[in-house]
Amino acid sequence: MGDDALSGDPVAAVRERFVAVNGDHPMTDADDAYVREHFVEATPAAMEQMLAGRLPLPSYVLSDGTPMVPAAHGELAEVAGGVDRLHDWFVAFWPDDPATAEAEWDHYLSGQYVCLREVSPIRIRMKTARVAEASAAVEILRRDPHDPIGRGMLGQAVDGVLAVPGLDSLLLPMTAYDRLRFGGPSVRETWVDAPRAEFLTPVPPVWPLRTERLLLRPFRPGDEAALTDAWADEGWTSLLLSGTMNAAEVAEMVRRRSRQHDGLFLGLAVEHDGELVGDSVLILQGTGLSEGEIGWTVLPRHAGRGYATEAARAVLRLGFEHYGLRRIVANLDARNDRSAALCERLGMRREVHRRGDFWSKGTWTDSYEYALLREEWRAQS
Ligand SMILES: CC(C)(COP(=O)(O)OP(=O)(O)OC[C@H]1O[C@@H](n2cnc3c(N)ncnc32)[C@H](O)[C@@H]1OP(=O)(O)O)[C@@H](O)C(=O)NCCC(=O)NCCS
Fold it and tell me: Cα 34 vs. chain centroid, distance in angstroms?
């Protein structure tokens, strides 16, 4: 025990231990604010246990000397059935690997588990598993960025799947202070930011796309003129999600679509001979952004000429070849016979007929989900 602890100043004694582990680095105002937001002040009782080596040292010491710990700091001892049982409870999470269990316990006691939003053995194990998964996925995707298994693994590792949290939600960012004590890139930078930028950030293709008769390109201001009549027509919009739109609303839709920059929503204007004849939509979604949802309209006076089919074929190709999608789906009101016929023409499979699940314009209606896998698309093209 240091002099300060003996002289009865536990805050100073804890700081001394903290500096021995982490070095003496300055905390900026931003560090202080961040730590106050995500951590709590250590209680006098907790400080006593820290000095006895039975609870983790602080994660941070604020520039005014206040020792700060994760919110779960004392709770885990309670869960374990008392601080005396904490060690045995903790290492039991690695029943087959005592060396890792003890190494994790030491790291836990050091207080340096600051990358985790919630410091607990179960979260430590999750982080280890997700990092291993991300690392294996990156290796696969470096060989083939469209590999479906690699995309699934990376999607789960980074973003999680349903109740399985990914690293993005498990990890906290690194502070300037952390950079001084740990150096190097953080786990978050290495296993969330870098793989997301390299493999999970859609890169748009070179516009426009051209087909035999059509040209597909992002929307631009001015496109609203061709769309206004169709969007004012109750019959034409009856089976769409949205209702009719007036001229100002259509202009606003065009303005928003022409500024979609996250790359996940592609709203494309479809032209024939320089005239706008409809639109095609592709939304990138799902684990590892490996699924797309496709949508379409053709303006009433251009219907019945195969334009929607031709544009959709180009969008399917874009999805599977350029974005490396594994599966593309279409969701529609089951009363939309023309849209269902279009799905069938595209070789999509009706996978789901949902009964009365879809609330649309004052009534519950059935809906269909059509789907096409990449290998099915390849086999038919
Ligand atoms: C759904 C919608 C896009 C389908 O439009 P569509 O005109 O039936 O589809 P296409 O443009 O592909 O045209 C296909 C028709 O053109 C015919 N055609 C003519 N020349 C063709 C060609 N060169 N290639 C293919 N088809 C051709 C086809 O035989 C088919 O006619 P049919 O339905 O009488 O058999 C359209 O009804 C629409 O915009 N509806 C309102 C909005 C909407 O509901 N959108 C869908 C929401 S899920």
Answer: 23
Cβ(130)–Cβ(167) below 8 Å:
yes
Q: Of 347, 339, 327, 345, nearest to 368 (Cα)?
A: 339
Distance, CA 270 to ligand 1 centroid (Å)?
14
Give the least confident one: 144-153, 198-207, 255-264.
255-264
Residue ranges, comma separated, of all CATH 3.40.630.30 domains in the chain are 209-380
Atom number in ligand 1 closest to CA 230: 41
236 CA distance to ligand 1 middle (Å): 13
Residue nearest to atom 1 of ligand 1 (CA): 339
Instruction: Specify the CATH class of 209-380 in words.
Output: alpha beta
pLDDT digits (tens, 9 = 90+) for 243-272: 999 999 999 999 999 987 789 999 999 999
Q: What is the pLDDT of residues 82-117, one digit of tens each?
A: 999 999 999 999 999 999 999 999 999 999 999 999
The length of the chain, given as a count of residues? 381
Atom of ligand 1 nearest to the CA of 336: 44
